[in-house]
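Hi P.,

Sorry for the delay on this. The queue was packed all week, but I finally got your sequence through. Input first:
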Amino acid sequence: MFRLPHGGYCVRDADLAQTLLRSPEYHTGKSGFFNELLPTRDAQVEVGHAVRNFLRAGLPRYRVELTLAVTALPAVSRWPAAGNTLVHRCLADLLLDPRSPARTKGLTDRAMRGGVVFHAPRAWQRARAEFLRARLLTAVTEEVRHRREHPADQPRDMLDALLAACPPAEVTDRTLAELHLMMYRAIVVPVSASLAWSVLLGCLHHTSDAPWPWPADQVVREALRYRPIPWLLDRTVPHAVELGGVAFRPGDLLSASPYQMHHEPGRWTAPDEFLPERWAEPGEHGSYVPFGAGPYICAGAAVAQTLLTESLTALTRDARLSVTGGDTRAVISEGNVPRPFVLHRTPCHGGTEHDREGRWTVMAASMRRIFSNKPARRWYWY
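Then the structure:
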């Protein structure tokens, strides 16, 4: 054990940390991730599975938007801001249907840029973000009320998936709007930050003109190990217990650190080095918990891994990536976020089959949007 600066203790020993994360003894109630938005643990599980299943079914839509977004990406872009925009663009229509009322959709887009979705760095920006957040929750609450009165046959976006998993008798309209915003942030922010880390670390450790020597999946896995997004995973002590020579009372919080578990000497080969190739050998890594572990593990872990791998594959395919201003020291915000850097993306050979495919995809998508541009009226959408 070691004491944390803000109070409480973190488990130093990896075996004890695994016990803390996996043992049913420390998972007797609701997950703290949802705060008090849902009434029971079963309701939490159902919501997690509903969102995961919807996003998994929406992966083909994500791939189409990803091709459009990468094709439109400038040769020089500032990250992680550009990555935030890219991931949000590809997920936006899955998280909130584009045929939603213009006010709601507009406030959601402003929330992405205005410090509601991504943490604002300055105090005055955070104060303004709270005002924007209140307006957004009011608009989404109205949309929830309308959709409950006019339910869809099939879920069109994450909000519909949440509606199907949250009966009105258990979750109010306002609470469901808050749940939607929380899940929105919980999906977009970690995927964006992990993609930025994957790009940065891959470029810093491969500076030649040759293509990256690693598959995108190995780079993503190693980036999640080297710089995991969550710093601490908390669990509640259910009864009086002594661990590591420290006595704990019921209700005390204990934490495990993914970063520490991912860098523990003796369990990882060269833990302080960025080595994507380690994932080609199953015996070359130790405890790996970028999405948590045990009963409270992130329900969407596999989907998030796919989103990241698809995104990095699209960025690196038929292109040379390099960075300037890169720094592997993290910024502690609401998670482990990379410091700003500049990405230089140069297509190889002036235009490949993939580039031509991307241009055709852009043209086809543009034509679909033009011919599907219907009048913005509620009675038509629902």
